[in-house]
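Quick one, tokens below. Sequence please?
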């Protein structure tokens, strides 16, 4: 691979990028990312990438400069005559506005897809898109991996008794059903009402959780309001041990304080987004997804099937 592939990292999650190249036995391409005096992002690729299969690793979590940096690196690779440019996006930001569900609101998930395509990308490799239909917002190939194998391996080692997997909303039922099937567990739903962005209220628990150990499963934890409210409702319904598992640790606002004060025993997330506030909350467990992404990159380059990774 080393003669034909170039792996480029943006600055959003350099630690994950280093772990991916370590898995592949390669090195990151020499790229200088800086700033002009007015704050504009500058990028220079210091290696020849003409005719190379280029993979750009960059999540688009806040701040917005992470997205802009991805677009600029794609453009630099396009103008340097790379043969194929794959954007490896461990976290696809602006995905939560994926439909026009109110008057006069944008569909930012589609807008970002348009921007990435216009920059010159050939393919996208994503991890746990917030909504499956986002794949259809692109006119290039999109591979949407799931962190389920990584989360499953860890949770299986927790020795739960009479386990129930809980989806925090109706939209996560498909994900919860697949997870519960592989864990040989029951499935329940926390009926959620969202009055406004980042604010939700748990109304009812659908399913029997009395006496069960619980895994609350979601793709993103942002303010942690949903999972902490769900945990309280589950405890009131008779649940015993409660942990939460999610792919993307956005952790905005008072998320860590809410988790620390909650009845949740542990919150399991991945390193799709950098998490450096472990001292603020001792309940967070971060799992590594670099082997999953690294294997997908290898298989994409060698034109092997990656269907075994879609589990």
């Amino acid at each position: 691979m080393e003669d034909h592939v170039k792996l480029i990292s943006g600055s959003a999650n350099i630690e994950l990028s280093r772990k991916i190249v370590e898995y592949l036995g390669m090195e990151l391409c020499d790229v200088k990312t800086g700033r002009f005096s007015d704050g504009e992002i500058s990028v220079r690729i210091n290696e020849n990438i003409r005719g190379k299969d280029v993979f750009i690793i960059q999540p688009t979590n806040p701040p917005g400069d992470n997205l802009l940096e991805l677009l600029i690196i794609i453009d630099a690779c396009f103008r340097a005559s790379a043969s194929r440019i794959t954007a490896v996006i461990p976290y696809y930001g602006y995905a939560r506005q994926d439909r026009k569900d109110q008057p006069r609101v944008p569909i930012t998930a589609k807008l970002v897809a348009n921007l990435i395509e216009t920059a010159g990308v050939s393919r996208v490799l994503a991890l746990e898109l917030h909504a499956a239909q986002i794949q259809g917002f692109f006119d290039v190939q999109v591979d949407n991996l799931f962190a389920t194998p990584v989360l499953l391996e860890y949770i299986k080692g927790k020795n739960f008794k009479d386990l129930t997997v809980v989806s925090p909303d109706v939209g996560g039922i498909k994900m919860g059903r697949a997870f519960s099937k592989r864990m040989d567990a029951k499935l329940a739903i926390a009926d959620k009402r969202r009055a406004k962005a980042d604010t939700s209220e748990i109304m009812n628990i659908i399913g029997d959780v009395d006496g069960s150990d619980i895994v609350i499963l979601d793709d993103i934890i942002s303010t942690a309001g949903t999972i902490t409210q769900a945990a309280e409702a589950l405890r009131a319904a008779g649940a015993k041990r409660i942990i939460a598992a999610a792919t993307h640790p956005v952790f905005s606002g008072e998320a860590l304080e809410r988790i620390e004060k909650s009845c949740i025993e542990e919150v399991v997330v991945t390193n799709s987004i950098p998490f450096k506030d472990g001292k603020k909350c001792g309940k967070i467990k971060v799992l590594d997804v670099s082997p999953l992404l690294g294997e997908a990159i290898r298989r994409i380059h060698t034109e092997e099937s990656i269907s075994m990774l879609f589990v």
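The first strand starts at residue 5 and ends at 9. The longest helix spans residues 65-79.
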